[in-house]
Amino acid sequence: MRVVVAEDVMLTREGITRLLTDAGVDVAAEAGDAASLLRAVRTTQPDVAIIDIRMPPTHTDEGLVAAQQIRAEHPTVGVLILSQYIEPHYAMRLLDEHPERTGYLLKERVFDVTNLIDALRRLADGETVVDPTIVTRLFARKRRPDPLGQLTGREREVLALVAEGLSNRAIAARLFVTERTVEAHVNQIFQKLSLSIGPGSHRRVLAVLAYLRQPG
Amino acid sequence: MEGKVPGTAAHRGCPQDGTVASTEISRRQRCHNQVMDRTGPSARTPAPLGTRGRLTILAQLAVPARVAAAIAGAVVAAGALAVAEGPGRATTYAGSSTAGAALTLSAGVGLIAAGLVISLSRRPGRTGDLALLAGFCWFAPVWMAWQDGPPLVPGAAMVAAGFTFPLIVHLVLTCSTGRADSKPARLLAAVVYAEALLAAVALALFRNPYFDPGCLANCNVNIFLIHSLPSLARTVQIGDRWFTAAAAATLTVVCAARLVRASAPARQRLLPVHVPAIGFAAAVIARAAALQQTTVEDPFNPSLFTIFAIGSAAVILLAAGLISGVARARAERRAVARIAASLEEAPAPGTLQSALAAALRDPALQIAYWLPSTQRYADATGQAVPEPPAGPGRMVTRLTRSGRTIAVISHSGAVPRIEAQIGPAIRLGVENERLQAELLAQLEELRASRARIVETADTERRGLERNLHDGAQQRLLALSYDIRLACAAARAHGDTPAETALAQATADVQGVLGELRDLAHGIYPAVLAEAGIGPALATLADTAPLPVEILRVEDRRYPAPVEAAAYFAVVEALGDTARRGADHAAVTVGQEGGRLVVTIQHNGTGGAASMVAAADRIGALGGSLFSRDTTCRAEIPCGS
């Protein structure tokens, strides 16, 4: 697998690069800002670009803008946004335009190399990646009445994995059940929550996140 | 005579100086100081307002003098009529026809009447005296035809006749302010007087009427004659005629220039005198041209009579214009005085300016109040304004009270000595408005200062959040990375205790990172600055200790201080709501007019907390916050 790493803090950039190299991932290029990232993606056509959300010059959302541009210009290149913010808003903004091959992970999670490699693999497979911390936080949101209360424990588990961006097959593998079972669970959940989006659609991650954030 | 009245003469210089360019600071300052110094006495002797209060001994003497002038005027006019009917009747326009008599009489009496009216209205300057004198001189050509009277009368009349023109020129030049108000005007007046004097003296001493081929009236004797020089007399007569024509042309130019340069309200006042003046000047020029064709000024010559009729009509109109100007000024004084009466009803800021503008028929009139505490000018609402500059058509007058400048008034300059018309009652009103303006300005400064304090605090908060993000959090990330490497190395060496300890350390660092992240978010959420109030409130609802519905929030950006004020108001209100045991809250954020309105409704019990921090923030932006029972509502001005 070939990746490009864009991160303006050299220490972090080198750490990630070393982790990936040690794990056998080919780091095709490193970039310190959005412009050099876009150049690197154009020339190396990696499987995934790993992008820090805050980059020069304004250190606000340059990474997010660059990610959207990459997804628009290079449909085969996945993007993984690294951030220190538990902000569903950023993740949803990213997924809103390009639901496939996009991911949003907390920075500290990438130093757990298995997490990182797993996320990269899923992105390369066309899945979506949403940091579990974000999903956990959304699940913990106080609601009145709580519609999630009508779900069984297993259904909540499945819903959380859907929200993290896993495909049915990946959920089945994670939970050691058949894909058919997962499909049944997903249908059941969507019915209980009156979610209208098709269970197989790539848009379902965004729909679930939006559902979890809706008032009440 | 009027000019010597204390308290009026003192002010006269200043409106003039007020018209100097604003760069002449030292001169203006000097004038300002003079006003300050000179207003002292008038403050001790109150009631400089109006006409009655200024009646000092000198002014009281003026009344008998005017009565005497009126009687003299009547005698001169009636006598002239009698002379015109006498043996010399063929030599004067007045004697030539009834129309000539009517025109002569109307113009002369008109000038005398205008002079009396102006003098009695206590307008400053010499305009009244000039009109009186011009009226007397107007009859001189008729008196020259008194053949059976004492020879001194025609002789004196001959000398006086030469001064009619300079007096009318001077009269026109002074009619607007009581003085010739510009260098060219003063020069013109001086030159015509000098020339008239020279010509009169030369003709009186050296013209023997017997040898004057152009002589029509009083052709036998010149009582002042010392030596007969016919050719010199002839040259002086022709020279005088053409000089007078040239001066009349100059007067036309000066009048036209004044009319063009004046502001609209000022032009309105100038027209009734300046247009007849131009007519009169035209008649003078025409007369000079006509006399070039003929030796004798024969009143029966139709073209000469027409020119005389035009000139007389112009003088009649001019006199009428002068009288109407006095009437107008009187009406304005009354209108200004009426303002004082209306001041009792505690007027709103700016009322005085519009009332003065209406009274003086000068819509562009502007009052700038002097705020000594900040050493600048402000309008009635306390907004800082530049010192009104004097310019073409605009005049600046300082208003003082007890020796202090309280305001400057920028006006068209059409009303002479505006500061004298503004009496103590209005001055008090101006002082009140000034104090009010000062208070409003201080309030505004205070509000701006509060806003700056909050803005500075927010900037520091954002800086702190960034420093945490880019500094401590990054270093902790690096540390967690190093610990993971060490952990992996320990595992590779089979050092289980070390691996366990390092795994624990990793978890600890993760915990610290989480806490630090929450801290940074609490200081200033990055999402608030980058995405606005909506996303920030959504995240707030994610982590709130009670169910929070964001019912409505407009998807648009507002100025950062407004967004921060709205956000932190919700944070504080939700904290209070949770403390009061509410089990849900609903938040709306929407724009109503120029305000961002935030409401938080909940079902908590007990009294609402005061929410000091949010109230301070919102107050600094000129907004309001109230919290009662189960509702909290904040209104924050947000521009458009």
Indicate the topology.
The complex is a heterodimer of chains A (216) and B (640).
Chain A lengths: L1 E5 L3 H13 L3 E6 L2 H11 L3 E5 L9 H12 L4 E6 L4 H10 L4 E5 H4 L2 H12 L4 E2 L1 H9 L12 H12 L3 H8 L3 H14 L11 H10 L3
Parallel strand pairs in A: 1-2, 1-3, 3-4, 4-5, 5-6
Helix pairs in contact in A: 2-3, 4-11, 7-8, 8-10, 8-11, 9-10
Chain B lengths: L8 H9 L7 H20 L12 H29 L7 H4 L1 H23 L6 H12 L1 H4 L8 H10 L2 H11 L8 H24 L23 H32 L2 H30 L8 H41 L8 H9 L6 E6 L4 E3 L5 E2 L9 E7 L2 E8 L6 H4 L2 H69 L3 H28 L2 H6 L1 H11 L4 E6 L6 H20 L5 E8 L2 E8 L9 H9 L3 E5 L2 E7 L3
Parallel strand pairs in B: 6-7
Antiparallel strand pairs in B: 1-2, 1-5, 2-3, 4-5, 7-8, 8-10, 9-10
Helix pairs in contact in B: 1-2, 3-5, 5-6, 5-13, 6-9, 8-10, 9-10, 9-11, 10-11, 11-12, 12-13, 13-14, 16-17, 16-21, 19-20, 20-21
Tell me briefly what this model is.
The complex is a heterodimer of chains A (216) and B (640). With 216 residues, chain A is an alpha/beta fold.
Order of SSEs of chain A, N→C?
EHEHEHEHEHHEHHHHH
What is the alpha-carbon Rg of chain A in Å? 17 Å
**Distance between the first and last residues' Cα of chain B:** 61 Å
Number of domains of chain B: 3
Helices and strands of chain A: which structural class? alpha/beta
Structural class of chain B: alpha+beta
What is the distance, rounded to the nearest whole angstrom, between the alpha carbons of the first and last residues of chain A? Answer: 43 Å
What percent of residues of chain A adopt helix (DSSP H or I)? Answer: 40-55%
User: How many helices of chain A?
Assistant: 11
User: Using CB atoms under 8 Å apart, which protein chain pair has the greatest interface?
Assistant: A-B, 30 and 36 residues
Mean pLDDT of chain A: 89
Number of alpha- plus pi-helical segments of chain B: 21
Q: Roughly how many Å is the radius of gyration of chain B?
A: 42 Å
Tell me the fraction of residues in β-strands of chain A, as a range: 5-15%
DSSP strand count of chain A: 6
What is the overall pLDDT average of chain B? Answer: 82
Q: Could you give a short account of the major beta sheet of chain A?
A: 6 strands, parallel
The major β-sheet of chain B equals:
5 strands, antiparallel
- What general form of chain A does the structure show? globular
Q: How big a fraction of the residues of chain B is strand? A: 5-15%
**Quantity of strands of chain B, as a count:** 10
